[in-house]
Amino acid sequence: MALPNFPIDKSYLIAAWLASAFWGAFTVIFAFWLATTITRPQTRSWLPIGAVIFMYGLATAHISCVLARIIQAFIVHINDEGGAILYLADIGQPLNRSKDMIYVTMIVLADTILVWRCFMVWNKNYYVIAVPSIMALATAISGYGAIARYYTPNPYTPTSVQWAEGMLTVSMATNIIVTLLTAGKIWKVAHGLGAMSFGPSQRRYHYVILLIVESGVVMAASKTLEFILFMLAPNDGLDGLNALYIVMDCMPQIMGICPTFIMLAVNRGFTSSGSQAYVTSGSMKQSPGGGKHVVNTIAFATGSAEGVKTDDASDNQGAYALQTMKEGDN
Questions:
Q1: What is the C-alpha separation between 88 and 74, in angstroms, rounded?
Q2: Are 204 and 169 in contact (CB under 8 A)?
Q3: What is the torsional sign of CA 178, 179, 182, 185?
Q4: Which of 83, 218, 254, 295 is the most buried (most CB within 10 A)?
Q5: 256-272 pLDDT, tens per residue?
Q6: At a CB cut-off of 8 Å and minimum separation 6, what does 248 contact?
């Protein structure tokens, strides 16, 4: 079945509009994160702070390149031979090289942050992140290798496509693996305590939201869509289905939003920045009827799991817990 024709000029126009909207959302989330970082000194960790600020700077530079290319294509080069389509399809243009260099750097940073978060969720288990770490390094090598092809006299070669395909494939696989590892750890600990079926509905909603944010589900889904569109796109961008560029120009904003959301969750006390993010504790409590029961908690907040409160006052202390009780004998 023949694929529909989706011209590259229309694709980049839609991409610029959507990427601008995502950049606006990123700016709002970044501002909230920065405010909570300044007002909560106890949550400061300079490495992730520097990473988030750097990613926001890169995302801003990327959207600037996107809008500059639109101006060049539809105003400066509109009357050239081939017009906007030929200009936008030329990946060797300096603006496009800069834009895609930022794009690859954002991929490497975002993948590294998700691997780091998985490392923390698994209580600093080096064995768990061994393969994802190697894959993140492979993403960097293949990504910058693809950009290097832009500087050759003829960037449209099978080798160029293979480098780009390798980068997208490995990055997508990294995100899926890390997402499954992180979500699996959260689900395993919570399910082991019976947290999936206990407690008010609001707490269950918090659990689902936290699971989605922490595990990077949005990034994994976006990477999968991007890879599918890449496989369907023509190599030269002159005809065929060019919807890939809509997703590709939005990805730096999405890759910035997801890690920043995790850091915001840390600052707001919904989860912890350290290896104590997902730890459990248990204690004996006296039942009203005279029997004893065990109270098990899983801590999603800063501080140790011991003494995590599960009443309404816990929100004021930046604590959030899923709790289950197992009745014991009298």
A1: 10
A2: no
A3: negative
A4: 254
A5: 998 888 788 777 766 55
A6: 15, 103, 226
Q: What is the pLDDT of residues 99-135, one digit of tens each?
A: 999 999 999 999 998 898 888 888 889 999 999 999 9
With H, G, I as helix, E, B as strand and everything else as coil, classify residue 322.
strand
DSSP 89-155: H-TTSHHHHHHHHHHHHHHHHHHHHHHHHHHHHTTS-HHHHHHHHHHHHHHHHHHHHHHHGGGSS--
Q: Is 214 exposed, middle or buried (0-12, 13-18, 19+ CB in 10 A)?
A: buried
Q: Is 243 helix (H, G, I), strand (E, B) or coil?
A: coil
Angle at 34 between CA 30 and CA 38, to 5 degrees: 175
Dist. CA 299–CA 320, nearest whole Å: 6
The two three-digit tokens of residue 16, written as one number:
């610029």
Q: Is 327 exposed, middle or buried (0-12, 13-18, 19+ CB in 10 A)?
A: exposed
pLDDT at 315 over 70: no
pTM: 0.78
Residue 280 near residue 306 (C-beta atoms within 8 A):
no
- Three-class DSSP category at 325: strand
Q: How far apart are CA 162 and CA 6, in angstroms?
A: 23
Per the listing, tokens 């993010």 go with 277
CA angle at 169 for the pair 143 and 144, rounded to the nearest 5°: 5
| Contact indicator for 9, 239 with CB cutoff of 8 Å | no
CB atoms within 10 A of CB 226: 20
Q: Which residue from 289, 293, 281 is spatially nearest to 319, judged by alpha carbons?
A: 281
**DSSP code at position 270:** S
Tell me which residue has tokens 């976006």. 222
**Residue 123, CB half-sphere, CA atoms under 13 Å: how many?**
9
Which of 98, 86, 81 is CA-nearest to residue 9? 86
Bridge partners, residue 281, by sequence: 297
Residue 56 has pLDDT above 90, yes or no: yes
Q: Which helix (H) or strand (E) holds 282?
A: strand 280-286
